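Summary for the steering committee. One of the milestones for this cycle was to obtain a three-dimensional model of the protein with S-adenosylmethionine bound, which we needed before selecting residues for the alanine scan. The sequence and ligand used are listed below.
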Amino acid sequence: MTKINRDLVLLADGAGLSSATASSSIASSSKEKTATIPVDQLLAEQLNIALVHRPDQIATEYYLQYRAGGLSLVKTQSDAGETSSVVSCDFVLGALRHRRLFGGGIKQPLARAVGLSSNFKPTVADLTAGLGRDGFLLASLGAQVSLVERNEVVAALLSDGLLRLQQSAEQDDDLRVISERLSLHRGDSKAWLQSLDASHRPDVIYLDPMFPDRSKSAKVKKEMAVFPGLVGSDDDADELLALALNTACYRVVVKRPRRAPPLGGIKPGFSMEGKTTRFDIHPLKKIPR
Ligand SMILES: C[S@@+](CC[C@H](N)C(=O)[O-])C[C@H]1O[C@@H](n2cnc3c(N)ncnc32)[C@H](O)[C@@H]1O
């Protein structure tokens, strides 16, 4: 357990959600309980953390909060209890909406790194899913994406974002198609990869592990600055790359800070550099054109 997870509590929803809302808002593993238990209680049980009912019961710097708008990881900012939402997962509005509509489509570096084109819409295993932003972008461009996330808090935020995407998709065909291309798998990617049937090998495997210096960069977004305390440092990323190289059909793509050494010291076939990041591409088989 990393620092933030250890002490985390969930602040109960003051508005008191109905059990009907609860039944549509929680992951399938808890379905049998949804008839009577509110969402916040289910989430606390699922994450094995305490549910508190008043802000003055929170003794820690971070806490989770569930409201009608979704689940957030919140940082307590001052002694007066003033707060700001630090991390939540929103695929429908904000930056991801802008990127989906105006981001440059398949010309974007991530899409090119994965080899996505009008003739090649790969199955992608995003083995370090995080808040699912990269996976969502790939799904919005036609890839079928399996998101794998092992950190329970991050997976809960991601699951909540996917659920609200599904809800919005009921009124929006574009979102419906994207939502249907995304699936979430909770747990360690190494075990997930090893459990895959040979006929389900992904075309492309995508890795974006935590980089040790990431939080020190001035350009790091506030959400990513919280991540090291939440998920740790992904020390097994070299091992994950080795497994990925043995499993993907066409290529493995690794996102790195621009000046970082290649993951695992394994030289990629080629790289694509952006302003702050770099995609290292390990080709395994020629992509159909
Ligand atoms: C830098 S974040 C990824 C951000 C993501 N690309 C995005 O667009 O939101 C790295 C994430 O990978 C997860 N992770 C790292 N190694 C993993 C593994 N072996 N299995 C599952 N998740 C892993 C971490 O818990 C963390 O949430």
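Key point for the committee: The first helix runs from residue 3 to 7.
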